[in-house]
Amino acid sequence: MVIDLDRCNGCGACAVACAVENNVPPAHQQANTRNAVSLMNVSAVSNHEQFPAGDTAYIPMFCQQCENETPCMTVCPQNAVDVDPVTGIVGQVPQRCLGCRYCMTACPYHARTFNWRDPEWTDGMKAQLNPAVAPRMRGVVEKCNFCHGRLHAAREKAAAAGRNEIDPADYVPACVASCPTNAITFGDLNDEESDVCRLSKSDGAFRFLARLGTEPKVYYHTTKPWVRALAERSLTRTRQEEFHG
Amino acid sequence: MDSLLIPRGVQRTTFGRFLLWLLPWSALLLVGLYAIYLCLIEGLYHTNMDNRFAFGIWIFLDLTVIALGAGAFFTGFLLYILRRTELKAVINSAVIIGLICYSGAVLVLMVDVGQPLRAWFTFWHPNTHSMLTEVTFCLTCYLIVLLIEYIPIVLKNRQLRQIPKFLVFEFQLHKLMPVFAGIGTLLSFFHQGSLGGLFGVLRGRPFAFREELGIWPSTFFLFVISAAAAGPSFIMLTTRLAEAVTRKRLVRDDVYRFLGRVSGIMLIAYVLLKTVDTLIWINSTSPGSGFPAFEFYATRSFGTWILFTEIVLFGLLPALVLLSDRMRRNRRVLFTAGALVCCGVLLNRFVMTIQTLALPTLPFDAFLTYLPSWEEVAAFLFVIAYGMILYSVTYRYATVFPQEKELSMARADAAEAPAPSFPRRPSFVTALIDRFASSKL
Amino acid sequence: MLPWVYEFHWTPFHIIFLSVFFTVFMVVAATLTTALRRTAKAHATGAAEAILWHSDFEDLAPAARSCRHQFTGDVAHRQCDHAFDCRTCPLHRTFPPLEGRGVSPLTLQEDVLGFAMPADRMYHRGHTWVAPDNEGNYLVGLDDFGKRIIGTADAKELPPVGSRVTVNGTGWKVRTHKAALRILSPVDGEVTAHGGAEDAWTLKVRPAENGNGTEHLLRGAEVRPWIMREMERLQVSFATAGVGATLADGGELVPDFHRHFPKADWDGVLGQMFLEA
Predict the structure, then answer these.
(1) pLDDT per residue over B273-294, tens digit each?
(2) Residue C181 parent element (H or E)
(3) Through-space distance between the first and last CA atoms of chain C, rounded to whole angstroms
(4) Which residue among B114, B202, B206 sits closest to A105, beta carbon to beta carbon?
């Protein structure tokens, strides 16, 4: 997946689509941004300049699907995190999750959320639940899995048509489909022909915290030098001047 | 009222006063129980942990009490494997402290996880790459070992030992104790280490991530050694506390000094290794993952003072004090140094858990703060109250300190000596016997 | 177990890890089972009595464990390491028997610090005496020292006629107003009769055929220094029992003297004097 930060206007449609697709329960009245369930977050960052040089970028953050020594998978004591060797997607098995939250500690992207409360839907919302995705119970960890329900649907469709491989057009995660500016491109990074592969190798493509060595499979793209500089810094607050490289 | 349950020849307060002593702890126990009920039945939203601060005071204190409870394995190792028999005086108390610390930690862990009923999944679907798997396996086994080690202490109770089966079982179990001590040492070595490894393997948290030595990160070995240093100190402090509460001498001074020396030796080794580890981390590991180490200390309250306090004030200083024979002879200095060692372990576990989580990793993220909720504090106070009650009850009805009787006799002997109207009968009689004996043969 | 986990692959690491930890688990279980099995076996062979005594002996204060050869000056200082069973003690055999050493002036006195300790009896460290009767049985009773410190017993529980007693095992049980006591048996054998109120003895015991005799019992010249040391012990245990300084030199114990110290920890004192932990 490649996300073009220059196109993202921070509308949050991706986060809403994600919640609807994956049956994320509405946040409890007393919940806050730090303890509500949310698989996708969009953060605003600024270059801290005055007008007219001032600029803002929006960064959608969710599971980056680490390839190398996937931090969450290696620490889970009971194999509740698995990396699909075919698709490379990092999945979560909520039925096996103990809720120890060690994976959340291990994740450098804070892309995992815990179900602190019992999920609750109003009657009207219950009718809107996605039948393809099982809701998660209280006390387990969940995360983005590139819309597993949609992958299953695509596979079923391929099987029904007698194909072994899914049609890439059939499998598009909800965030990708809902983005009004087409900022997110999704596909097979191993496929040299694909758009994602081309974009991930283009100038201005980068990954967050790449030096940790976890080889995430989500790329970001920007032409703005200050956003690049920001991404390559780890702790920003202390040395703001370095952002303008 | 319960006098026939109390060991012979030792003084215990009246049953009424004992109940009075238990009363506040029981109250605390009930409050804690209510907090645990809320967390288990209603959900973990009663805590102030959140998606970013996924571990809180519970994990921090669990790591601490397990390190402090290391006295059980280390004393057992020194006594049963290395045959340091002077430690017989504190082995029972070490086992009880260990049992309290470990069972308390496991209990809090069970509240901490979201689905405690699935805890057994780890045995069914173990991920052998996970440090937490190692911790779970070892903690379970070691808790069983500690329970087995605790049985003889209970069975030695005056009334229970009247039951022949219990008596024989206690005897047979005691004969096999070196086996359990050996296994306990092995298990403790692994899980104290893997608790350290827990954070050392976090590639995604450069503040905690450390180089690997073999299959474990360096924190594995640092945690083992620091626990072995803190364990004896904690035994020293709890025994001193028991002496203060009961206003009695319970172990001889040379035992305290020996514990202090053991603590000092382990601590100086720890301080050296920790220094080397910190230097490697600052100069290589941390910058290698894109995070210059000084930046971790640039944030608000967590300055470099924390590193200095941990290594010098709570490390080097007490280590040097405990290694000096002259310093150890001063009781006040000895116990202060012991307290510093325990504080050092507390601070180290705090840094590894809370500070690790407070520091941001993403460039646009903020430094996080977290304050535990009353439920979290109360649930932990439950463990302290439970420990106090278990310790008190065991102390009252079982022989925890074998030297107590002897010390109370020595004290009574010393107390009667200054009475001027009273001739020192023992020496007189002994002299008489010796005279008769020598004249005859 | 593992092979059924979704997409599980065995690696050498799995094998090492799991075998180490399941081995540990098995060792713990096996050790515990061994302890239980040995317990059942030892319990069936009646080892409980001997274990009880050895465990009590281990817990005795050092002063209570002094070797009898210290009383006669054979050794300057020695702690018994045979749980008061001189019959199996190699050191005991190296000394000539007391009888061969001529009559000590001490043995002529049957009054030791005011206690009647007849010279024709043998004494056990747990304050019982043994005297052979003319039918080849042992008469066993509480010695004068023991009688005086116990005073009037509230209840006495004797082993039934026909049961076996063993050296340092339970002879009989005594309950006084504040203490429950186990009186150690001085001999091996079978109980053949109980002494009545008018008898000096408490049990009549037919010696066991494989019994080792009475070599372990104190006699003659040993009795006086032993009682002196016992007085010393009594004094120290009183001091710890909340009575304070007592038993200044020269006095004798009045019968039933514990009535004079109702607040003392009698249980503790008697436990020490009768060698019970």
Answers:
(1) 999 999 999 998 888 888 888 8
(2) strand C180-184
(3) 50
(4) B202
Q: Does A82 touch chain C (CB under 8 A)?
A: yes
- CB of A215 within 8 Å of a chain C CB? The answer is no
Tokens encoding A17: 């689509």
Residue B303 has pLDDT above 90, yes or no: no
Question: Which tops the pLDDT comparison, A177 or B415?
Answer: A177
Question: Which chains share 3+ C-beta pairs under 8 angstroms with A?
Answer: B, C
Q: Which residues of A touch C8 (CB under 8 A)?
A: 79
Give helix B15-37 / helix B374-397 axis angle, nearest 10°.
150
CA–CA dist C185, C187 (Å, integer):
6
Q: A21: how many CB neighbours lie within 10 A of its CB?
A: 21
Chain C: residue whose CA lies nearest to A78: C5
- CA dihedral sign of residues B84, B90, B96, B98: negative
Cα separation of A78 and C103, whole Å? 83
Give the largest CA-CA distance in chain C. Answer: 93
Q: How many structural domains compose chain A?
A: 1
Measure Cα distances from C153 to A43, B5, C148, C183, C202 in Å.
87, 21, 10, 12, 13
Q: Which domain holds residue A53?
A: 2-243
- Break chain B into its structural domains and give their ranges: 22-395
Contacts 24+ apart (CB under 8 A), B369-374: B370/B48, B370/B49, B370/B50, B370/B53, B370/B56, B371/B48, B372/B47, B372/B48, B372/B56, B372/B57, B373/B46, B373/B47, B373/B48, B374/B35
CA nearest neighbour of B170 among B158, B161, B181 = B161
Give contacts of B430 with chain C, Cβ < 8 Å: 232
**CA–CA separation, A170 and A172 (whole Å):** 6
Query: Is the bond preceding B402 in cis, omega lying within 30 degrees of 0?
Result: no
Provide Rg for chain B, Cα atoms: 24
Give, in order, the Cα–Cα distances in Å from B363 to each of A230, A240, B209, B244, B319: 6, 11, 18, 52, 39
Q: What is the ipTM of this complex?
A: 0.87
Which of A109, A212, A232, A240 to mutate to test binding with chain B, by most B CBs within 10 Å of its CB? Answer: A212
Return the CATH number at A151.
Answer: 3.30.70.20
What per-residue confidence (pLDDT) applies to B58?
94
Question: What pLDDT shows up at residue C104?
Answer: 55
- Determine the Cα–Cα distance for residues C204 and C191; give it in Å rounded to an integer: 6
- CA-nearest of B22, B94, B352 to B219 is B352
Residues B128, C14: contact at Cβ < 8 Å? yes
At C246, give phi and psi (nearest 5°): -140, 180
Sheet holding C180-184, edge to edge: C155-157, C170-175, C180-184
Per-residue model confidence as pLDDT tens digits over A174-209: 999 999 999 999 999 998 889 999 999 998 899 998
Q: What is the mean pLDDT of chain C?
A: 82
The residue that leads in pLDDT, B113 or C250, is B113
Enclosing H/E stretch for B434? helix B425-440
Taking phi over 0 as left and psi of -120 to 50 as alpha, with beta for the rest, A8 belongs to beta
- Token look-up 């099982």 returns A134
Q: Mean pLDDT over residues B10-30, rounded? A: 93
Ramachandran quadrant class, A139 (left: phi over 0; alpha: psi -120 to 50; beta: rest) = left
